[in-house]
Known about the structure:
474 residues; Alkaline Phosphatase, subunit A; Arylsulfatase, C-terminal domain; 2 domains; 15% strand; globular
Amino acid sequence: MKKLFFAIVLGIVWSFPGRAAAQERPNIIVIFADDLGYADVGCYGAKGFQTPNIDKLAAEGLRLTSFYTGCPVCSGSRAALLTGRHYQRVGVPAVMFPGNKNGINPAEITIAEILKKLGYVTIILGKWHLGHLPAYLPTRHGFDHYFGIPYSNDMAIDPVNARFAKDVVFREGMTEEKVRTSKAINNKVPLMRGEEVVEYPVDQSTLTKRYTEEAVKLIGANKDKSFFIYLPHTMPHVPLAASPAFKGKTKSLFGDVMEELDWSVGEIAKAVKANGIDDKTLIVFTSDNGAHQGSAQPLRGKKATLYEGGFRVPCIARWPGKIKAGSVSDEVAATVDFLPTFAHLAGGKKPSDRPIDGKDIRPLLLGEAGAKSPHEYYFLAHGAGAVRSGPWKFYPWPEGQGKKDKKTEPIKGPKVQLYDLSKDISETKNVAEQHPEVVARLSKAFAQFLDDLKKDKLPGAEKKAKKGERMKQT
């Protein structure tokens, strides 16, 4: 009997590493804006509107200034964040559409799955965009609760496979019959809870407010538990929309949207404090890619480009008593680092059966003496690709690639691009010819990376879907 008792105890300890230190592991809240650029937050240089709550988060925590997303567009970015792996490995394209039959591969391991096994309540509120068929929804990838839209807000409902709740709210004269028989309309998207549509088309001006209210409610309901809240906001992706309380507050709709997002951050921070869990909650604010409507200044490029303005985004982390208030780091870090970092903070480990591109950035977050970026090379895996290494940014392709001059001759100049970001953050001066040794080193590293990226890739998961979960192209 004693042997059985000790076996059970040991089994519990093995299954939940770090449970003995449960009081030290944090709740984790990741606020993930959509298309918010490097200079779209006050403390990063925003103009024309105010973000006092986000700025306060930075004043009370850490502001990262060389922080990268996993893709300069939507789906790839989300796949990289949740799996700690470059999106090319996980079976999704850079951008998914309602006509896609696939989604994130069921064999992938997400942050939510890791934390759920460690006893966390796992919640997603907002835009998913990793497959809208049942097999690929958040509830099949480690999340206990899902409330949000399945893809970008400029897309359209899948009229064939939409699953409507019994109490679904149809708006704008819609009925289920109309949805099934009419052509889907862009910018008219469904709101889901769990695996069912609860409103169609959703009133997009209410989304930021509703996500926030849901987050505040769930923070209170789970204050005595460990929880992970992933809040991938719909905004400021177009079409822009703000609630009546914020519409018209600034000189532009974009500014109105940003001030409402800032309000949302403030409400979440207030809820954490009001529930007495401030010192045991890590809040991270960042964006899925560079600016679309907003600003990436002083960076070159915007959303969808490989230049800094496409990949480098604001990132703020706050954890009272653990992260030093008012700290700033220019060390390279990225969203792929969240999985190994959060796993270790929760008392667990990253998966060991597959390549994990992310690194543990706890030393950077916690301000350990001499903490440096764990990335000797950070590869921007999209399109023709790029590499960040220390102060260097290397592009293994010529500036103006694919463009022709008036004589239809290829543009002359170096065959690659190299910029010293410590002196030229705007990437205005290509110094490849002046530093052939750096070009050679980074070219070799990039070639090795491409070979590695071909390994352990998971296919699109459409073959895993049940027959009833297939969909027609819309």
